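for ur thesis appendix - Outer membrane protein. copy paste whatever u need, i formatted it the way the template wanted (i think)
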Amino acid sequence: MLGKVTLVSVVASLGLATVAWSADMPAPYDPPPSVPISIQSEAESGGWYLRGDINHHWTKFRGATYITYGTDQVEPGTNGFTWGKFDSAWSLGGGLGYQINRHLRTDLTFDYWFKSSFRGSTSGECGGQPCVSDDRSSYKALLLLANAYVDLGTYNGVTPYVGAGIGGSYVRWSDLINDIDTGSFRHRGGKGWRFAWALMAGASVCLTDSLELDAGYRFTHIHGGRMFGYADLAGPGYDRGFNVHEARAGLRYSFSGPSLHCAPQQQPAFEQVSYEPAVYKP
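the 3d part is after this line
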């Protein structure tokens, strides 16, 4: 009888312990549903544009040297122009560009500079006597540049900018006419490609959503090169390059969509994504 009582007591104790342990167990984990939230998107898409420009430029002559020969000279000597200057001239240009975002853009441009007349003078000896020459020529050029610009913000449809470019220029001199006391001589003009770089500043004005008027200033430096060839104991001659100041005006047309500067500014877009909150288990 005592054995049965003991067995019943043990079973009862185990049952109570099981109930207590079950009460201490955590409830089964049921993760909360994902919550949709909105994220603001401010991405800007750029676009391609075409440009056309008309320019008026002033060229500064930086000097030139040439080789002289004489019957009393064993080696050729070197002489230089006493002075020289260019007339102002016009140019036309165009290009293809890409507006990266509201503040950065880049383009490839070409400009044809029409004839700029040159007048200069040299001094030396003619038959043992001092003499001064009167020299006349002109030059034309084709300028190719790869440019980058920083647009400084748009204010009531006006966008100021600064920029820089690098490239090359094909310079073609006409024949140089050299008049001195002993006669008139013709030197064949030089031609060839030269290194060039430029700095720009200006502003664009919105005319429509896709069309902007661009006006500004450009400084262009063209390295030196062949100016004229040999004739009558003188030549060839080499100019030291040009510094060119340009007043520019033109149009930029955004053909892949409205310009970022001129289109009505839209509210930032919102994108919905699913977010699952972190849950910490006890």
